[in-house]
TrEMBL record:
UniProt name for this protein: Molybdopterin-dependent oxidoreductase
Residues that span the membrane, as ranges: 59-76, 83-103, 109-129, 149-172
Alphabetical keyword list: Membrane, Transmembrane, Transmembrane helix
InterPro entries according to UniProt: Ig_E-set, OxRdtase_Mopterin-bd_dom, OxRdtase_Mopterin-bd_sf
Record-linked PANTHER family: SULFITE OXIDASE, MITOCHONDRIAL, SULFITE REDUCTASE
Amino-acid biosynthesis in keyword set: no
Pfam families given in the database record: Oxidored_molyb (PF00174)
Oxidoreductase molybdopterin-binding domain boundaries: 224-376
The organism of origin for this protein: Nocardioides furvisabuli
Length: 497
């Protein structure tokens, strides 16, 4: 029974910690309490309130916890006879938790994770403890030693459970707080304009031209995301400058806000991959801030540092020319999501993220490439990271069966700050056919393409290539992303019947 109770508490602790860290929601136990409240007949709920006063909710949670403890002990007591009976109890309890979590408003797949983590902890800790007990029973001569081991393991699990729960609470509280500040922010000059209609070709299956924040790819080295209150944020611009600048959040957003559609892509993106997205970014132009600081002679880069110590070196040239390199404060008309760099990140059209798009940016040091090296460059990736021209087939998917005859192919192509002149598609090594392109507001975004071709019965290989506004045709040479971005043509296999 003790093994059952300990395993149960450990599982509650890990699921609670997971919920705190991940979903900003309440833990599965509270979800169950909410479900009980929702399902309770009005008369019962009212009675509970009159008897318990405002303590009705804590009382309910405590009641559920007591019931759970009883179930835990019960599960533990069943381990004697069979291995599957306690597992069944764990699974049923987790099932109730999962049901309650998924019954919450706007519940998504991620919300199930705390329950899964809890279930895994229950089963793992319980079987470990039961094993330890069995060993002890088989060797009565060692009883006192084994008993001590069991008690030590049990004690360690208890301490670890409490520590995990407290750590989760700590991380989660900070995040919740910042999330509230973020939701309440209204930044002057930030609009909610949606994508111009002509950017979309209206072909089902092509990635939407404007990537919603929730669907935007996320890449960073952070384990726990930095959670920074806007009031606590500041940026220092220093190094080879005439005047050091230190800016707080309200000072930054009090400046002229620029808005631009810009496609961001990752150097690690494989040919045909999804580490690319297009959003409307709002922020303050870096060229203006750097001019105000006064860049010294001989400087050729800016070493950017994030709140969590990640760095990258960005050529000065792209931060001071006429492109919209900015300190972004909003993404698609909303304050930056925490995972995309709240409250301030850098966005530079035309460069891969690893040399430009610092999330949670706090420090800009005007410097030289000879002196400065960013996080990924130090690990062997190229110091310069201009985006390479690329194209992708979104529809049909590789492996799809299609009807022979007219087949519509579609996807996206990008070469930020150069622009796309044309996209061409080739079936089975035949002629390159030009696709229709969606309209775009600037050369800094990706473009949708689509073309309808006559496809005879049988298996086919289809490839796509883009041609840039500078006349460059996308290379067909297959190269891995390391060290400065993949090349090669996205190729799919379909079967027409
Ligand atoms: N602080 C910080 N900023 C970072 C990174 C990081 O690891 N830490 N990764 C970079 C990389 S490699 C990319 S591709 C982009 C991705 O930005 P996103 O997660 O908003 O899509 O952020 C860049 N900025
Ligand atoms: Mo990246």
């Amino acid at each position: 029974m003790l093994a059952g109770v300990l395993a149960g508490l450990a599982g509650l602790a890990t699921s609670y910690a997971t919920a705190m860290v991940l979903t900003i929601r309440e833990s599965p136990v509270v979800a169950v309490a909410e479900l009980v409240i929702r399902l309770a007949p009005g008369a019962v709920a009212e009675r509970a309130i009159t008897i318990l006063g405002t303590a009705d909710k804590p009382a309910l949670v405590v009641g559920i916890l007591v019931l759970l403890l009883a179930c835990f002990a019960w599960a533990g007591s069943m381990a004697r006879g069979s291995w599957w009976r306690p597992v069944l109890v764990w699974v049923v309890l987790a099932g109730i938790g999962l049901g309650a979590v998924m019954a919450q408003r706007n519940a998504g797949v991620v919300d199930a994770l705390p329950v899964l983590v809890g279930l895994m902890t229950w089963v793992a800790v319980h079987s470990a403890l039961v094993d330890a007990l069995r060993r002890q029973q088989r060797r009565p001569d060692l009883e006192s030693h084994e008993r001590r081991v069991f008690l030590m393991v049990a004690g360690a699990i208890s301490v670890a459970s409490v520590a995990i729960a407290v750590a989760g609470r700590f991380v989660g509280a900070g995040r919740r707080h910042v999330e509230v500040s973020r939701r309440l922010l209204r930044i002057p000059g930030v609009t909610r304009r949606t994508a111009p209609a002509a950017t979309s070709l209206g072909v089902a299956g092509i990635a939407p031209w404007q990537t919603p924040n929730e669907d935007f790819y996320q890449i960073d080295t952070a384990i726990a995301l930095p959670t920074i209150e806007p009031d606590d944020w500041s940026l220092r611009i220093h190094g080879m400058v005439d005047r050091e600048l230190v800016l707080g959040y309200s000072e930054l957003v009090a400046r002229q806000v620029t808005e631009s559609w810009i496609t961001l892509s990752c150097v690690s993106n494989e040919v045909g991959g999804g580490l690319v997205g297009n959003a409307r970014w709002s922020g303050v132009r870096l060229a203006d801030l750097l001019a105000e600081a006064g860049v010294g002679a001989g400087a050729d880069c800016v070493l950017q540092t994030s709140h969590d110590g990640w760095t990258c070196a960005t050529p000065l040239e792209v931060l001071t020319d006429d492109r919209d390199a900015m300190l972004a404060v909003a993404m698609n008309g909303r304050p930056l999501p925490i995972e995309h760099g709240f409250p301030v990140r850098t966005i530079v059209p035309g460069l891969y993220g690893y040399v430009s798009a610092t999330k949670w940016v706090v420090d800009l040091e005007v410097s030289t490439f000879a002196e400065s090296m960013g996080y990924w460059t130090d690990k062997g990736w190229s110091a310069l990271g201009p985006v390479k021209i690329a194209s992708r087939i979104d529809v049909p998917r590789s492996g799809d069966d299609v009807e022979a005859g007219e087949v519509t192919f579609g996807g996206v192509a990008w070469h930020q700050h150069t622009g796309i002149e044309a996209v061409e598609v080739q079936v089975d090594g035949g002629a390159w056919e030009r696709a229709e392109l969606g309209e775009v507001p600037s050369v800094d975004t990706w473009v949708q393409w689509a073309v309808t071709l006559d496809v005879p019965e049988g298996d086919h290989e289809v490839r796509v290539r883009a041609i840039g506004l500078d006349g460059e045709t996308q290379s067909s040479v297959r190269r891995a992303p390391d060290p400065d971005g993949a090349t090669g043509l996205h190729t799919i296999e379909i079967s027409a019947g």
